[in-house]
Amino acid sequence: MNAMIKNPIITTESLCKKYGNLLRVDHVDLSVPQNAIYGFLGPNGAGKSTTLKMILGLAAPTRGCVTIFGKQSTDKNRLELLKNIGSLIESPSYYGHLSGFDNLRIAAILKGVDEKQILELLSIVRLTSQKDKKVNHYSLGMKQRLGLATALLGYPKLLILDEPTNGLDPAGIQEMRELIVSLPKTFDMTVLVSSHLLSEIDQMADYVGIINQGKLIFEDSLENLHQKSHGNIAFRTDSENKTIQILNEKQISFQRKNEYFLLPPLTDDTIGKLSHSMFEQDIMIYRIENREQSLEDIFLSLTGKEQSL
Amino acid sequence: MKPFKLELAKNRISILMLLTFFFLAINFVWCSFGLRTASDAQRQWGWMMLLYEMPILNAILAPSFVAVLASRIADVEHKGETLKLLYTLQSRSSLYHAKLALGVIFCLLLCIGQALVVVLTGKVFHFEHAAPLDKIALYFFFSLLVTFASYILQLNLSLFIRNQMVSLSIGIIGSFCGLFLMFLNQYPVLQHAVLWTNYVTLTLSLISEYDAKTRYISYTWCNVNPWGLLSVAIWMVVLYLIGRRLSITNEV
């Protein structure tokens, strides 16, 4: 399913993670291209966070390896590689009894980043006026923005964001999304962002990886994913039996859905002949529609999970 | 030094100091309460009484103090889900060692404070004899060792088990175990095997004899208990190795 991606910033080879007898991540071969937004999509419990944690070294792979910036990540070089990576996994990390500024100062010291950058980042995530407030008194959206600012400290080459819009209100989601979209151009960054919301990835990502039940089932550009959306011809007639008879005679496969006959994409010539045959049989055609398959439909057909959306 | 400095910045040091002073205040009140009605004759034994009471007090209270101390130092990371950030910015062992160092400083403060409480109490109640500094130094050193070992145990529990009730409960259970086993002199191996009992078996530098007829307690200095020392040393090394291993393999 994987398409070849040139100069990937992250690759994983046969990455597996087993908890007990359950294989949560099953031989995932991920390839994240540089200077792009890579959307890591999958239903809840698909293995997104576990994969991201293994990339960051927060969880040890049961099998397989992770290559970052062309170097295989090991216990010895992990921290060196992570110097160029900012991350926000699941929920923001913070010390609630300290101010937003102090929280960033702690991360800045650990990253070896000049403290002057803190004010700059607070301004980017629009927390300047709240910098001296205790983080315990921040709203969830503010905490999330603080988490993003922490991840952005040192302007890393790669940003790994796990469900960054979780728990945010619609305005917060929009704001966070705009910020993420601006990062590759503004700071020359690559962003690996996970989500279980297809619409979110659709609005942000250039590349998409879809994971389901621990397996990477699709990986390619968003454009190519959209191209998979082959449409259907849908039509409705006044006589079901006669229509079925004609379709069978012409050996055209079909599906029935809400009084409609759904046919695979057909040439104009075939549709013309079909409608002519119906006219000859006195079948009244009420409606003929060209139906595009939505991204949701593709996602569902790939994952087979309706309940997660 | 950087990880340690950050521990100072992250933790509420003033609360940890307050906790330590509160514990020392209890020590002083306890000792003073016992001596308040003591006769002049009894006060001749004053230093011995103090050095007998302090280890018992430690066996009762110190495990809980250490559990609270370790919990406060470790829980600051659980509350804000910061381990998953810190593990990408610093080595796991450096974080563990920094937390260990911070706790050890407070254990040191506590034990220095307790030694000073002994001296201060003696001065306040005007004990006749000069303070037995060698015995007080031994008491300080041995109680420091047991407190260190208890702290390593409690830090391991608090840092690697999110639910702080587990570590706090074990601290309290430790108090009960230490106190209960203190009375089982016929089982010295069991006494030494349980870490908290060493607050008494190792740090107690005297033996007491109670005469039921005269209702009089006499004290005699005794030698250092080498088995207690060995037990605490083993506990410290094993607990440290477990903690270091867990800090490396811990997944968040």
What descriptive keywords fit this protein?
heterodimer; A: 309 residues; Rossmann fold; Alpha-Beta Plaits; 2 domains; 6-stranded mixed beta sheet; 5-stranded antiparallel beta sheet; 11 helices; B: 252 residues; mainly alpha; 2 strands
Structure description:
The complex is a heterodimer of chains A (309) and B (252). Chain A is α/β, with parallel strands linked by helices. Chain A has 2 domains: 8-227, Rossmann fold (3-Layer(aba) Sandwich); 232-292, Alpha-Beta Plaits (2-Layer Sandwich), CATH 3.30.70. Chain A has 11 helices and 15 strands. In chain A, a hairpin with a 2-residue loop joins strand 13 (255-257) and strand 14. Chain A is elongated. The two termini of chain A are 22 Å apart. The model of chain A has no long low-confidence stretch (mean pLDDT 89). Chain B has a two-stranded antiparallel ribbon. Chain B is elongated and about 65 Å long. Helix content of chain B is 76%, strand content 5%. Chain B has one domain (2-249). In chain B, strand 1 and strand 2 form a beta hairpin. Chain B has 252 residues and is mostly helical. At the A-B interface, helix 3 of A face helix 1 and helix 5 of B.
What layout of secondary structure does this protein have?
The complex is a heterodimer of chains A (309) and B (252).
Chain A: E1 8-19, E2 22-28, E3 31-33, E4 37-41, H1 48-56, E5 63-68, E6 71-72, H2 78-82, E7 85-88, H3 100-111, H4 116-124, H5 140-152, E8 158-162, H6 170-187, E9 190-195, H7 198-204, E10 207-212, E11 215-221, H8 222-227, E12 232-237, H9 240-249, E13 255-257, E14 260-263, H10 268-280, E15 285-291, H11 295-303
Parallel strand pairs in A: 4-9, 4-10, 7-8, 8-9
Antiparallel strand pairs in A: 1-2, 1-3, 1-5, 5-6, 10-11, 12-14, 12-15, 13-14
Helix pairs in contact in A: 3-4, 4-5
Chain B: H1 2-10, H2 13-35, H3 40-43, H4 46-79, H5 83-89, H6 92-124, H7 133-160, H8 164-182, H9 188-193, H10 198-201, E1 206-211, E2 216-221, H11 226-249
Antiparallel strand pairs in B: 1-2
Helix pairs in contact in B: 1-6, 2-4, 2-6, 4-6, 4-7, 4-8, 6-7, 6-11, 7-8, 7-11
